[in-house]
């Protein structure tokens, strides 16, 4: 009887136990840090209890013990100890980063993110839930391994929570964490979780199986022992050294067989599994030959996962034979290395990658996932889901509340804003991704957390159609622009109509009163008066020909000696000038192009200091030309929308624009020159720098720099943020 890894809940693990266990496989690990994490977590959770009544700290300790059994690296083990301190003790990730290291902090943050994911109910697609997890682990796969260890211990102690919660958590585990453990090849965790799920989802079945398996226990143990002995004996004849072990299969796999074949436990024949472990691949096939010549193999049950490994790297030979006493037994043959990979999956890989900077495995893994998917045709349903996901090439991003949104590949913050709500999209002035300001053209990546900044005065512009990728955003922007166009054209039409009325010494009011509007509507075959105005506004109808069709004007013009022709011509040229103004673009030498207006004095507003790339709007200042503000700048007088004009950045204009940024750093010697170098390395000029020290050993620097445009500014900010000592960078 054997079980390679035992994940049972342990009540009295001391820090010395943990140290000793890590020493077993990683003798020169950082034990000082491990001890520090142990007491840090103990202190943080002091006074907190679990549902079982035990001290809370017992949970994180068990989680890290599981990670040690999986032979994970020190960062993961420490993250296991600290995994609940952000969520349950209100400790800031920055503190973990300072006390331990950025990798540990990042794993803990990832775990906190997962705990905020709202998984959909099983009626909705499991693939989607799975994708959410793929997103979460995309940053650092250790996040998921720690999460699995966390879930394992929670499942181990699930009897202490309400029945409703037991069912919900077990179902979620079966739907999401079991497939994940399987995909990552951590079979020991997968099998254990499956049995625990069965126990809480179908307790009747679980206890019936447990009883059946227990009933024939001594009989079975005798059978296992004698079979192991006879296999070993046969191998000795060929001088093969091997480890042979036997056990009853996991309950869940027996249960699955019963369901698949619609039979009872008593009709399940092959409940015993034997494992033979040898030194190399040649010996594996040798063993297989000996087994097949000693016991009759069952046709169709032989599988060679050594020649063709499973997608999760699992390798082994599988066969089912008629064993002693005509019992069907399943036999797995593999090497020691294969056995370790089979038990710990991707975790076994981890230790070989020790020393590689955290995060560098991320893309490899996703790429691997992609490759596997292309290589394998037939696998379980969830693999299909992953395959599907990767084929779509979507990105999965988080709202600040932890909700996940799926967007097309290449989607921008604007797509995200419209996915949240049309009004959020329409009022979007900017976005923060993972806490940093980004341009609206930024391409979202899976795992990004996005916060949309809105402003009441913001309105969608035509340029946005070039930015967005999703059909929804495109449609919403077009709808808005169409409505605005209609409104503007209607207004222009009304303006022209009223001016025209004055030429003929009448007014719209008079024409209305005389009931002559209906005549116009039917004469020009339009739906209503608004439509007539729009037709005038867009220039389809001449205001002159419309007005001369008004019966009272027709009559008056005949009686009046004064020929209004001159006035009418004036009116028409005014109208056509207006339409041209909308179409014509200036070729000025300014940094900013003002719609249809040449040679205007253009200056940048000091209040919001726009730089190329910012969404902008022009504001006509009497006698001073056009002042350019960022869209949504509070200084633009809301009451005077008529004084705003459309402006856009002149792409061909090359200029340097001053902008100030504030950098908050840890107070370290030489930090100023580090930051300055980051800026000047990019060929950016520093106009001035101002340094100030803050309380708590922090420093504040304000740099005035000259940038070409918004993207250059963002690049500079990101570069500076890349410095370890830098806490944050803001535009001021
Ligand atoms: Mn936990």
Short description:
This protein has 732 residues and is α+β, with helices and mostly antiparallel strands. It folds into 5 domains: 15-201, Orthogonal Bundle (Hypothetical protein af1432); 212-351, Beta Polymerase, domain 2, CATH 3.30.460; 479-586; 592-649, no CATH class; 657-731, Alpha-Beta Plaits (2-Layer Sandwich), CATH 3.30.70.260.
What is this structure's SSE topology?
Elements: H1 15-23, H2 31-44, H3 58-69, H4 74-82, H5 85-89, H6 93-99, H7 102-116, H8 126-138, H9 142-156, H10 163-183, H11 187-201, H12 203-215, H13 217-237, E1 243-248, H14 251-261, E2 272-278, H15 281-294, E3 296-297, E4 303-304, E5 317-322, E6 328-335, H16 336-344, H17 346-352, H18 361-375, H19 381-392, E7 395-398, E8 404-407, H20 413-420, H21 422-426, E9 428-433, E10 436-438, E11 450-454, H22 464-467, H23 471-503, H24 508-513, H25 517-523, H26 529-537, H27 543-547, H28 551-559, H29 565-583, E12 592-594, E13 602-604, E14 616-621, E15 625-630, E16 644-645, E17 647-649, E18 657-666, H30 671-680, E19 685-694, E20 698-707, H31 710-721, E21 726-731
Parallel strand pairs: 2-6, 13-15
Antiparallel strand pairs: 1-2, 3-5, 4-5, 5-6, 7-8, 9-10, 9-11, 12-17, 14-15, 14-16, 18-20, 18-21, 19-20
Manganese (II) ion (MN) binds at residues 59, 83-84, 150.
């Amino acid at each position: 009887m054997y079980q390679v890894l035992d994940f049972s809940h342990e009540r009295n693990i001391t820090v010395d136990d943990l140290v000793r266990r890590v020493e077993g496989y990683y003798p020169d690990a950082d034990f000082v840090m491990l001890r520090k994490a142990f007491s840090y977590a103990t202190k943080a959770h002091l006074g907190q209890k679990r549902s079982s009544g035990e001290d809370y700290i017992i949970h994180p300790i068990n989680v890290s013990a599981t990670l040690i059994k999986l032979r994970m690296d020190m960062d993961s083990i420490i993250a296991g100890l600290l995994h609940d301190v952000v969520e349950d003790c209100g400790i800031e990730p920055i503190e973990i980063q300072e006390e331990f290291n950025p990798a540990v902090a990042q794993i803990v943050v990832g775990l906190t993110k997962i705990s905020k994911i709202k998984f959909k109910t099983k009626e909705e697609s499991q693939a989607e839930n799975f994708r959410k997890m793929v997103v979460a682990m995309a940053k650092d796969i250790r996040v998921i391994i720690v999460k699995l260890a966390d879930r394992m211990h929670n499942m181990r102690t699930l009897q202490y929570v309400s029945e409703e919660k037991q069912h919900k958590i077990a179902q979620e585990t079966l739907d999401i964490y079991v497939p994940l453990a399987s995909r990552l090849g951590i079979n020991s965790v997968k099998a254990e979780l499956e049995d625990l799920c069965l126990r809480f989802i179908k307790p009747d079945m679980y206890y019936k199986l447990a009883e059946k398996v227990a009933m024939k226990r001594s009989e079975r143990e005798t059978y296992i022992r004698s079979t192991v002995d006879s296999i070993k004996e046969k191998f000795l004849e060929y001088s093969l050294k091997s480890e042979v072990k036997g056990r009853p299969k996991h309950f869940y796999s027996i249960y699955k067989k019963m369901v698949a074949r619609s039979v009872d436990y008593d009709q399940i024949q092959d409940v015993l599994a034997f494992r033979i472990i040898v030194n190399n691949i040649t010996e594996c096939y040798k063993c297989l030959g000996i087994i097949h010549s000693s016991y009759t193999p069952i046709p169709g049950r032989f599988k060679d996962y050594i020649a063709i490994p499973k997608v999760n790297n699992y390798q082994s030979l599988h066969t089912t034979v008629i064993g002693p006493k005509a019992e069907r037994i399943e036999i797995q043959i593999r090497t020691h290395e294969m056995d370790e990979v089979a038990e710990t999956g991707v975790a076994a890989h981890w230790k070989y990658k020790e020393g590689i900077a955290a995060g560098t495995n991320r893309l490899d893994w996703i790429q691997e996932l992609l490759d596997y998917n292309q290589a394998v045709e037939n696998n379980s349903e969830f693999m299909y889901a992953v395959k599907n996901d990767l084929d779509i090439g979507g990105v999965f991003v988080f709202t600040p509340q932890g909700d996940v949104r799926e967007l097309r590949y290449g989607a921008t913050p604007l797509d995200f804003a419209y996915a949240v709500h049309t009004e959020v999209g329409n009022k979007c002035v900017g976005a923060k991704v993972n806490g940093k300001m980004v341009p609206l053209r930024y391409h979202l990546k899976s795992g990004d957390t996005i916060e949309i900044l809105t402003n009441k005065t913001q309105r969608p512009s035509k340029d946005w159609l070039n930015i967005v990728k999703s059909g929804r955003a495109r449609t919403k922007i077009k709808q808005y622009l169409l409505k605005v166009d209609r409104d503007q054209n209607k207004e222009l039409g009304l303006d022209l109509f009223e001016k025209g009325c004055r030429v003929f010494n009448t007014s719209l009011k008079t024409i209305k009163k005389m009931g002559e509007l209906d005549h116009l509507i039917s004469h020009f075959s339009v739906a209503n008066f608004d439509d007539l105005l729009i037709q005038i506004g867009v220039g389809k109808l001449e205001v002159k020909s419309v007005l001369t069709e008004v019966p009272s004007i027709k009559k008056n013009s005949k009686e009046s000696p004064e020929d209004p022709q001159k006035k009418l011509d004036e009116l028409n040229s005014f109208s056509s000038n207006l339409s041209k103004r909308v179409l014509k673009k200036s070729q000025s030498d300014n940094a900013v192009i003002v719609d249809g207006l040449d040679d205007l004095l253009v200056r940048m507003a000091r209040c919001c200091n726009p730089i190329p790339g910012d969404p902008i709007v022009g504001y006509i200042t009497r006698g001073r030309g056009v002042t350019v503000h960022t869209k949504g700048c509070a200084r633009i007088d809301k009451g005077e929308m008529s004084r705003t004009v459309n402006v856009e950045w002149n792409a061909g204009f090359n200029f340097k624009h001053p902008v100030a940024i504030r950098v908050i750093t840890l107070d370290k010697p030489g930090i100023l020159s580090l930051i300055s170098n980051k800026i000047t390395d990019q060929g950016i000029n520093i106009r001035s720098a101002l340094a100030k020290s803050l309380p708590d050993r922090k420093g504040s620097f304000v740099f005035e720099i000259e940038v070409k445009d918004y993207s250059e500014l963002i690049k500079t900010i990101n570069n500076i943020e890349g410095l370890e000592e830098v806490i944050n960078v803001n535009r001021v």
